Amino acid sequence: MLILDPDDPAGWREAPAAVPGTPAASGNRFTEGLNPEQREAVEYRGQALLIVAGAGSGKTRVLTHRIAGLIDSREAWPSQILAITFTNKAAAEMRERVESLLGEGASGMWISTFHSACVRILRREAEAIGLSSTFTIYDSADTRTVLKRIIKELDADTMGFTPASAQSKISKLKNELSDVETYARNANMNDPQEAMFLEIFRQYTRRLRAASALDFDDLIAETVYLFRAFPNVASLYQRRFRHILVDEYQDTNHAQYSLIREFTQPVPAERVAEMSEHGFNVRGITDASGGIPGASLTVVGDSDQSIYAFRGADIRNISEFERDFPGAKVVLLEQNYRSTQNILSAANAVISNNFDRKDKKLWTAVGDGEKITGYTGYTAHDEAQFVADEIEALHRAGVAYRDMAVFYRTNAQTRALEEIFVRSALPYRVVGGTKFYERAEIKDAMAYLISVANPLDELALRRILNTPKRGIGPATETALSGFAEANGLSFREAMRSADALGLGPKVTGAIMALARVLDEAAAMLVPSSAGVAAGTNEGASKVSDVLVFLLEKSGLIDALRNSRDPQDETRAENVDELVAQTRDFDRDNPQATLVDFLTQVSLVAAADELDDASGTVSLMTLHTAKGLEYHAVFLTGLEEGLLPHQMSASEPGGPAEERRLFYVGITRARQRLYISLAMSRAQFGEVAVAMPSRYLQEIPEDLVDWKQSPGMATSRGGTRPRALNARPGQGGAWGTRDRDLERFSVTASAKPKAEWANRVTGTVRDNGDLTLEAGDRIRHVDFGEGRVSQVTGEGTKRIAHVSFDTAGQKKLLIKIAPIEKL
DNA sequence: GCTAGTTGTATTTTT
DNA sequence: TACAACTAGC
C-alpha cells in the first residue's frame, strides 16, 4: 500500500534549478472547474497561505492542483516540494492525483506524514546526533513495556505512577519539545513526586538511547533538535524544499509547528556560499543578498475539525497563523461539495454551539436531500440490528457496501456491532482497532527482525529470548543483563559470551544458539561488495527470506504449529500472513532494506488499511473517520458518557472537542446520515442506563426523522427493565425536564411499525448442521416467526434469507443465529 | 521454569 | 468483560 518515495539520494546534489515562472503561467488547466476561492488558493503565490477549508470543500483538490500548477509552470521541480498529510494513504492518493494531473511521474516529491518524513531525515542524518541509522521505532506498547520495567525497578508504583500515566506525561513533554534536561531545570526537586517522575523520565531516555530507539514523539522532536543543533544540516533541507504544504494543520502540535518553522527558515548568505563551495547547486534560488529565502508555506485546516488536542494538537497554530507568518494570505472555502443541505444544516447547528470560534457556514448547491434518520435501541444489540437492517435496505436499493460506514467513539463498541453483523451475514471490516501488527505472535516475529536490524535493541532481544520457550527464565535474563552491565557489553554481546556466565549447559546452549541464528541472519543482510561500492542493497537477502530463516531456525513457527493450544493454529496462520506481506513488500520495493520494511510497519495508521476496492461496510472510530467520506454514514452510541466521553468531562476544552468529533462524523456523509443510540449499554459486563447525548438536542428537530426517539423509548410500555424507567439524575445534561423528552415524542414518526420486533438481544446459538431450505418456517428469538425464502452460501457460511411475519426481511447466518426450525 | 487457576483492576480517541 | 498480575503446585 505504502509506496516508498522514489527520491534518489544520488540526485541530492544535482541542480534543481528552478525557472521562476509568473503566477499567471500556472495556466487554466489547473483552475478549470474550480470556484473563485479555490482558484485563488491554487494560484496565490507568496510566502504564506492559510486555506481555511470547511469539511468537504475540496481542499485535497486545491492542494493537488496547487502542486501540479507549481510543477507544470516550472516554478518548482518536484523535488522542491514537501507535502505533509495526515496518513500514508492520503499521501499516496495525493501523489497519484498530482501525477495524473501532470500526466507524468513526479519523482523526488516528498509527500508523506510528519512521522515518515522525519524518519527519513533522521535515518539519513543519524550519525550527527549519535544514533544508529538502523534505529528502532518504539510504538506505544513498547514504550509502555519499558516504562513498566522502570517503574517496577524504582518502586514508583507506590507513589501512584503507572506506565500509562508516565507515558502520557512524557509524551506531552516531548510534544512541547521539553527533554529531560529542560524538565530537570524547571523541576521542583523538593516534591518527591516530581523528583521521581524526573528519574523515570531520565531512565526512559537513557534506555531508549542505549537501545538506539526513538518513540513516536521523538521522531518529530529529534528532527527539530537536529535542525537546531546542526544549522548546516538544516540548510540542506531548507535549500531543497522551496514549497512546504501541510494538510490538517489544526491537528499539529507544538513540535510539529516548530518543525515547520525550521523548514521555512531562510539560509543566510555565508552558509549558502559555504554550501556552494561544497558542490551544492544554489543557482536560481538565492536572493539579492546571496542567501536563500525561506520556503513558501501553505497550510490547510479547519479548526472545527480539531480532534487531537489529547495528543498535544494546539488549535492556536491555526488561529494565530496570521500572527506567526506576517503578510499571510487567508482563503476561506465554505462551499461544500460533499453533503446534502440537511446534513450540513445539522452540522452547522451543532458546531455553532462551540463558542470562541470563527463563524463559518457550510453551504451546498445540491439541495436538501433526505432527512436524517434517528433510532433509539433498547440495548447496544438492538441499535446494531437497526444499523444492520438499514444497511441491508440501502444495499437492496443499490448502495454498495463499501459506500457505507459505521462510526463510534470507542473501540469497545465494535463488539455488539460485530456480533449482529456476523449474524446478519453483512460483509464488514473493522478499520484500526486491534491491528494485525499488535498481535503477540506478530510482535514476536517482528522482534526477531528488529533484533537483526538493530542489535542494540534490548527490548526486542528480551522479547525473543524465551519465545519460543527455551527454558530461559527471568533469573537467566537478569544474569545476562548484569553481566552485560558489569563488562560494558550490549545485551547481544553478552548473549554471545553466555558460556562465561557459568549457567547450566542447557540454558547456555540455548542462548548461544539464538545468538548464532541472529548473527547468521545479520550476515544475510550484508550487500555484496559490488553493492557496497555502488551504495545499493545489491546482494543482500530479501526481507522475506530473512524472516523465513529466522522463523525456522528459532523454532518459533514449529512451536506454534506443534502446539496443542487450538489458538496457536490461528497464530501460525497470522505469522504466515506476515511472511506473505514481506514477500509483497520485496516484490513492490526491490531496492528496499529490512530497515525500510520495519519503518513502514511502524508507521502504518489505521486509515492506511482501508481498501477502497473491498466490498465491505467499514467500521471505525470517529477519529479514524477524519478525512473520509461515504454515501451513507451511521453515527452510533450517541449517549452521554460515550459522546461526550466520560473521560473528556474533566479535561479543559473536552466537551467542545467532543462536539467537534460529532461534527466530523456528521460531515463525512454525502447522502444519508443515521444517528442512533441505546437506552442501556453494557459496561463492566453490567448493564447501565444510558442517557441521550446532549449534542442530539443541538440538531434542529425538523431535520431528523426518528424511527424510535429517546422519548418513545422511555415513555412506552411496561415490558422493559425497571432501570430504564429511572429518571435522568441531577446534572445529567439531558436534563430532568419533561420537555426534553417530549421534544422527541412530538417529532417521532406516527407509524409505530416493526420497531418493537427489533428488541434484539445478544443471544448466540450454535446450530451445528441445521439444514434449511426455501419454504421452511422458523422461529427467531428476537424476530419471531418467518419463512425462509432462499438459502445461499456454503458450509458454516450458509445464509438464510427470511421474511419475518412482523420484523420484515432479514439475512441470517444459519450456524449462529438464534433460530429453530418449526 | 512452567502451567493453571485465581484474584484484582481498569476501560478514550492515535501517529 | 477481559486481561494482567500474582500464587500454588508440579
TrEMBL record:
The keyword NAD does not apply. Keywords: ATP-binding, DNA-binding, Helicase, Hydrolase, Isomerase, Nucleotide-binding. Its EC number is 5.6.2.4. ATP binds at residues 53-60. It catalyses: ATP + H2O = ADP + phosphate + H(+); Couples ATP hydrolysis with the unwinding of duplex DNA by translocating in the 3'-5' direction. The keyword Ubl conjugation does not apply. Residues 341-627 form the UvrD-like helicase C-terminal domain. Coiled coil: none annotated. Residues 1-28, 711-737 are annotated as: Disordered. It holds the Pfam family UvrD-helicase. Residues 32-340 form the UvrD-like helicase ATP-binding domain. One of its GO terms (molecular function) is helicase activity. PANTHER family: ATP-DEPENDENT DNA HELICASE SRS2 (PTHR11070:SF2), UVRD / RECB / PCRA DNA HELICASE FAMILY MEMBER (PTHR11070). Belongs to the helicase family. UvrD subfamily. This is DNA 3'-5' helicase. The gene is pcrA.
